[in-house]
Amino acid sequence: MSWHQLYDIQTTEERHYDKAGKPRKEDIPKRISYRVTATIIPMEGEIEAQRIRCDRFILATNVLDLKQLNADDASREYKAQQGIERGFRFLKDPMFFASSVFLKSPKRVAALGLIMALCLLVYNLGQRQLRQALAQAAQTIPNQLGKPNASPTLRWVFQCFMAVHLLVVVQGVKQVVNLTDERQHILQFFCKACRRYYLLPEPDS
Question: Does the predicted model carry a pTM greater than 0.70?
Fold first, then answer.
């Protein structure tokens, strides 16, 4: 479909000769070329129609009563769920090996879905708590590139602590290894239970 029209089309003939300089009247050109010029004018009606068409997308719902949920309300509700959509994409990450779980009955599939939704809820609450604590303290933690980040993802924090291990030495003495200063700095923005989990003393009040 054409979205533009050509107006004021003009053709200019150009003669090309073997010798340089101004040709004589009796000289025969070696070749002749033509240059076409025109003014391009956009067809605003067609462009606007295509723009409106590109802005459309399909939303399906089982709420059929337009008084209860019309198209505009459905669109707003959908756009308000972007955080949830990102969360479920997070659960589908290969890091969690969800695709390796095989369940025989629909009830077990539903139970696994409930557990994953609860895990996502806890994840979002933990990430919210971390970001709020950073904002209140006007602090940051390093991101993947080592640059300060005031709104990190909890997944990145999990990755930061993957190298931390619990070592049990003689007589049952427990020790946390690889708990660097940077990781201790991150832990101060979590609750006391997280610090106790890594055997850290309570901060001085």
Answer: no
